[in-house]
Design goal:
The chain has about 110 residues and is α+β, with helices and mostly antiparallel strands. It has one domain (about 1-105). The protein has helices at about 15-35, 45-55, and strands spanning about 1-5, 60-65, 70-80, 85-90, 105. Strands 1, 2, 3, 4 and 5 form a five-stranded antiparallel β-sheet that branches. A hairpin with a 7-residue loop joins strand 3 (about 70-80) and strand 4 (about 85-90). The radius of gyration is 14 Å and the shape is globular. About 20% of the residues are buried.
Length: about 110
């Protein structure tokens, strides 16, 4: 789940995005910069940039699963070969190391 953001600054000039930008500048970006990858995408990266980062991280499927006026629910998947052929689902761009806190779920 990500804060709702469009791909361009002009599309994000509204009261909610202004709040998200302030959180991004004071919390998200500095936290990311302190990590190994340090992309500093912040809270207003936009779906296009998130897709780029996620697919560069080896995920082959990416889609917007749902949205609200305040959040985007993005789904990224990749197959990881294990002895049992299980599929891992990764939710949130942060499954990529160094971007933030993420959540993974094992599907048998």
């Amino acid at each position: 789940m990500e804060p709702f953001a469009h791909d361009t600054l002009e599309q994000n000039l509204n009261p909610v995005s202004r709040i998200y930008f302030s959180f991004s500048a004071t919390v998200c970006a500095p936290s990311s910069l302190s990590q190994e990858v340090g992309l500093a995408l912040g809270a207003q990266a936009g779906e296009e940039k998130l897709r780029e980062v996620v697919t560069a991280g080896g995920f082959t499927q990416f889609r917007r699963a749902a949205e609200t006026p305040f959040n985007l629910v993005l789904e990224a998947r990749r197959s990881i070969s294990s002895g049992r052929g299980r599929l891992f689902e990764c939710f949130n761009r942060s499954c990529l190391r160094g971007v933030g806190m993420g959540r993974m779920k094992l599907i048998s």
